[in-house]
Amino acid sequence: MKGNRVAHISVILVLLLLLQAMADFGPALHAETDDAAMEQSHTSADAKAASSWIIKWAVPLAEMNEQFVQESTIVKQLADLQVVEAMPKPGVDAGQWAERWSQHADVVYLHDNRPVQLAAAPNDPLYTNQNYLKQIGMEAAWEHENSNADMVIAVVDTGVDLNHPDLKDRITGGINLLNKNLRPQDDNGHGTNVAGIIAAVSNNQIGVSGMLWDARIMPVKVMDSKGSGDEMKLGEGIKYAVDEGAKIIVLSLGLFKYSQYLKEVVDYAEDKGVLLVAATGNEGQSVKYPAAYHSVVAVGGVRSDNQPEPKSNSGPEIDLVAPYRVFTTSLGGGYGVSEGTSMAAPQVAAAAALIWKRYPDYKPYQVRSLLQQSAQNLGSPGWDERTGYGLLRVDRALTIKPEIDFYEPNDRSTQAKTLPVDTQISASFSSSTDVDWYSVQIPYKGTLEIKFPGATNEQLRSIALETYVGGAKKEEVSDLTKGAKFSVEPGTVLLRARLNETARAAGFEYRLETYFHIYRDAFENNDKQYLAYSLPARDHTLKATFHQVNDVDWYMIHVKEKGTLQIRAEPDTYRMDLELMVQRMGENGRAYDYTDEGETEYTPKLQVEPGYYYIRVRNLNYQSDSYPVRGEYTLSVNYLKTYEDPNEPNDKTYQATTMVSGRTYEGVMYPNEDVDWFVFNVTQDSYASFLLDNIPKDRTMSLAVLNSSLKQMAVYVNDEGDTSISHGMYLAKGTYYLRLQANRAFDTQMYRVRTTLTRLVSGFRDIQGHWAEKYIVDLASKDIVSGYPDFRFAPNGKLTRAEATFMLVQALSPSRTNRTPAFKDVNRNHWAYEAIAQASAEGWIAGYPDGTFAPNKLLTRMEMAVLLSQAMQVKGIAGRSAPFKDVPGTQWGADRVRALKQLGWISGYEDNTFRPGSTSTRAEFVSMLYNLVNRKK
């Protein structure tokens, strides 16, 4: 009878939804309205307020009463259900019409067509703040199931506010494991947040609504007012809840490290048919335990836009996600916002309770499977490390048809379904010929182990497993009674599961578990000090693992010279909490544990003397075994020899080290207050170049120049990261000092300092001995040419068209002009504007066809020859002979080159080339300019 009644109500609800699409909305219907009220006749007032009516006939619609048809407007007909939507025609009194036909013998029922909600909604006033419930399809789910008072859900947390008006009637039993003489009263607030998500009383017109409108919560207090607890209490709390009859246990706490104790407690719960639901954690790192155990439903978090919450822990163990931010009950009888994966986990626990209400015979793994297969995919199809199988959808979990194997179709390699590297799934061989393909992403080199828990020996003998990489078969195991382990490398491995040809099994359901075992690193066996792996005494970086229980890694360095030693160990997973220990042979060692889980551990810079030094690296797990970790650590050894300063003592001016020009001096800055003084003599006016290099990248140094009276003339400082200082200055004859200082001491590398004195020739430091020296000196003395601010002439430097024009004007001093040069790229702001204007007025220069002069373009040797000949009014000598072998007689400017060569002003190169297209150097131009200025008539 109950099943028929539910079916009847379901049909009515479907009908109402269909008819509502055609109707205007009338007065809202409260959730607590019962079925009997739907069958009562309306009063005249109610009838007049209605826009249309729903009439169920006891006869086929074709046999409806003719009078009804005449006085009614038929809006819609559902012949199969013998239902119509109708309204009285204009002029017919609606109240009388409804009253008359509701009592007609052929009418089963008649009532106004009332608006319906898409899903049931509670009347709790703060329900509008619980948007996360809509996100997971809760309103639609309530149309199917909304309670499970037969099932106890344990909240293993900080306790629950036992007096909260929205929770106090939902509490059953419980315990305070911190003090068994006290009740499990929450003194932190977290457990109250969790309990409200699951079981806050609904439809009581106060506060919020729990996902379960009727439920029983067992508070198990294992954490104190600060939200702190320990592994033992956590395990004890789980076992208590199991033994006291809880069917679902919510765990909103955890730890990064594997615990065999917790594993045994989790297995105990599974053996008793209890489902554990746990939060993955909020560090944006690896999934925490107990969520990481195979049989536990691991729940991560998403934002309101269904994007993964960055702080939500993720990895191969994650099953699904739920909203990270919720509005729920709070300590002290209040309500508020709370967030974390610990708020996502109770949503999944409540969903599991509703699944069990619908499927009471399900085992925990079947509930877990239905949660997975009903989740809303948020990324690429299938499972992914950020969101698992997707977003919790309670409505789907209660409405979809559960599949024994929701990984199908996966009969071909191209259909391979993603299988996390550490997980448990449930699937099936539908027949003896069924083949299941899975794709496993391997993070490191190691071993992939496959187990089939619950399978009989006959079933294990019938299963064959094969691995494929890049389309090629790698390994096969055809009898799983002895287990199945495969060697794997980082990347994608395809796993093919099938039944042997000789198998008698016709197919069966199975649970498959994957276990990844990290590789044994190349430095094993080094678990004992006397087995320490020897490392060279230099900078060294290596990667290693903890591949076995209580794995400890020892290394040794033979230090032959005094120096500094610094060790760093960086894990790539939060499941490592590294500790370093350094010990000199024959002495006591010192341990270093400055940082927390997942963080780089390090030693300070240790001053070391010659000898043997041992380094121990281990994964801390106080008072317990340390278990293998899926991850690597990077060990960095930094050994630097320390140096003695050969120039010490030179901390005072009277101790200054005498410098010879061009010689390099090395030193260190140690201790912090060290100052190094150097002295040198200048015998004639010179340009002094100072170079200080090989400065450590994390240091700054200053180089100060002082005269004989110790008056500071200049000081130069490098930026941190720059390893050198290079500057120069003019110095007259005399004695000078250099003072070197550093912001911090260093003695593991030596700085280099050099002073180079260069005699100045006509004020230039780079023309002594140059082939054009006399030309430059001559023209410089006449103020025709000049150099650069750093006392260079740069004789081999290239010459621009503007520079050549300027020198030419300086040499020939043409009359000044007010004419503006007709070049669109030379304005009054150009440094050579006046010279270009004068040269243009004299007709010495011409621009390009596009109206530009291109002042910054390099001057070619041919342009140089033409420019000089025009300035000197040297007429070209016509002819067809080549003045140089690379200057054809017909080339532009050949006549000018021929004339200048005949005058002896140009001579070309030894190979009888002129190289007209090459750019002119400053020295070449000066030599020609010299000939021009000093020409003999």
From TrEMBL:
Please provide the record's keywords in A-Z order. Answer: Hydrolase, Protease, Serine protease, Signal
**SLH domain: from which residue to which, for each copy?**
759-818, 819-882, 883-937
Q: What GO annotations for molecular function exist for this entry?
A: serine-type endopeptidase activity
Cleavable signal peptide: 1-23
| PROSITE patterns reported in the protein's UniProt record | SLH, SUBTILASE, SUBTILASE_ASP, SUBTILASE_HIS, SUBTILASE_SER
Pfam families xrefs: Peptidase_S8, SLH
Alphabetical GO biological process terms? proteolysis
Q: What does the record give as the active site?
A: D157 (charge relay system), H190 (charge relay system), S342 (charge relay system)
Checking Gene3D superfamilies in the record gives: 2.60.120.380, Peptidase S8/S53 domain (3.40.50.200)
Record InterPro entries: Peptidase_S8/S53_dom (IPR000209), Peptidase_S8/S53_dom_sf (IPR036852), Peptidase_S8/S53_subtilisin (IPR051048), Peptidase_S8_Asp-AS (IPR023827), Peptidase_S8_His-AS (IPR022398), Peptidase_S8_Ser-AS (IPR023828), Peptidase_S8_subtilisin-rel (IPR015500), SLH_dom (IPR001119)
Instruction: Give the family, as the similarity comment puts it.
Output: Belongs to the peptidase S8 family.
- Protein name in the entry: SLH domain-containing protein
